[in-house]
Amino acid sequence: MSRRTKSKALTVATLLIITLMLPTVCLATTYKQNAAPETKPTLISAPSELSRNESMDEELVKTLEGFHNGTKTVNGIKLHYVEGGKGEPLFLLPGWPETWYEYRKIMPELAKYYHVYSIDIRGMGSSDKPTTGYDKKTMASDIYALMNELGYKNIYIAGHDIGSTVAYAFAANYPHATKKLAMLDISHPDNNMLKVPIVAPPGSYDVSNPDRAKFPWWWAFNAVPNLPEQLLQGKNLDIAYNWAYDYLSYDKPALTPQEKAIYIAAYAKPDALRAANDWFRAFRQDIDDFNTYKKLTMPVLGIYGTTGISDLGPFLKENTKNPKVVELKKTGHWIAEEQPEETIKQFKEFFR
Questions:
Q1: Where is the signal peptide (predicted)?
Q2: What is the spatial order of strands in the sheet that 77-84 belongs to?
Q3: What are phi and psi of 133, to 5 degrees?
C-alpha cells in the first residue's frame, strides 16, 4: 500500500472515530422503512459542539489536497470556510441539511481555475449560530462582509438550496460586487411560495418511482416555532434527515452513509438544529424583501434536476435578464453530488 493510500485510509478511520463520538445521533445507520427497533449503543462523552465541528473539519479538509480551513469574524459572528486554488474568487454557499462539504466533489477541479471558498453560512457547520439574522438579506450581508475581509471588491458566487437563496439576495443587494451568479435547484422565496398547497400531489411519496414529483413539506414543518427541535432529537434526527437525503435523490449512492452521517453530525446539537430551522422561519421576511428587489442584470446560471423541487427556470426568466437555465436529466436535488462532472462543466463554461 502506498504512503498516500495509507494516509487516506487513516483519514477515513479518524472521521469514523469522530462521528462515533457524537452524543445523540446514531450516525452509521441509514433510514430503513419498517426497520426493527435497535439496541441503543453506549454513548461516549463528546466535546463541545464547536470543538467537535472544528475537529471534523480538520479531518475532512485533509481529503482535499491544496485546501485548508479558515475563519473570519463579520457582522459580529464567526464564519468558517474552506479555501483553495488560485485565480478569481468563487464563493460556494451550501444548503440544508448539509455544510461546506457538499461541494467536495467539484472543489479540486474548480480550484485549478479559481480561488474557491466553500462557506458555512450563518447557522451552519463550524460557523456561529446566533439567535437572530436568518433572513437572507442579513445572511447576504455576512457574505459581503466576508468578501471585504478577504480583500475582494467583487466575486463569482454560487449557491445550492438555502445557499442559493442567500446567493440571490447577495446579487440583489450588492450587484456591484456580483460578477456572475449561479443557483442550484432552489429559487429565492417569492409570492409563489404563498401558493404552495398543504396537500401533496398524487404520487409525491411513491419512493419506488425516482421520477416522482417532490413535495417540500419540511418548508412548513421546519418553520414551526420550537417543535422541530423537540421532535428531531437523537435517533429521530437520523431517521428524518436520512429520509430527506434519499427522498430528494435520484442517484441515491451519490451520498454514502458516511457522508450523510457527517452532515447529520453538524446538525445534532440543539443550537445547530434551531439555527437551521430559522432559515425557514425567515421565509416570510424573505418574501417581503424580495418584493423590494430589482430585476437582476448580471449573468445568471440556473441548474436544476428533473426530479428536484425547483421552479428555478420560470423564476429566473421572470426575475433576471437573459439567464442560462440548465435542466439535468435523471438528477435529484443534490446537484453537485449527483452530477459533479456536469456541474463542473457548467461552472467552467459560465464563470470563465
A1: none
A2: 67-74, 77-84, 114-120, 88-93, 155-160, 178-184, 300-305, 324-328
A3: 90, 30
Rg over CA atoms, the chain: 19
> What pLDDT, on the 0 to 100 scale, is given for residue 52?
54
pTM for the whole structure: 0.86
Q: Could you tell me the three cell numbers for 82?
A: 474552506
Contact 119, 192 (CB under 8 A): no
Q: Could you give the CA distance from residue 181 to residue 351 in angstroms, rounded to a whole number? A: 9
Q: What is the pLDDT of residue 53?
A: 67
Per-residue model confidence as pLDDT tens digits over 312-322: 999 999 999 99
pLDDT at 55: 81
Contacts of 321 (CB under 8 A, 6+ apart): 295, 296, 297, 300
Q: Identify the segments of the chain with pLDDT beneath 50.
A: 1-10, 12-14, 16-50
Topology adopted by domain 67-351: Rossmann fold (3.40.50)
Please say whether the dihedral angle defined by the alpha carbons of residues 290, 293, 294 and 296, taken in this order, is positive or negative. negative
pLDDT at 43 (0 to 100): 29
Indicate the domain borders of the chain.
67-351
Q: State the Cα–Cα distance between residues 125 and 96, nearest whole angstrom.
A: 11
| Start-end of H helices in the chain | 3-20, 49-60, 107-110, 136-149, 162-173, 218-221, 227-231, 235-247, 257-266, 270-281, 283-290, 312-319, 335-338, 340-351
Task: Give me the numbers of helices (H) and strands (E) for the chain, helices first please.
Answer: 14, 8
- pLDDT at position 188 is 98
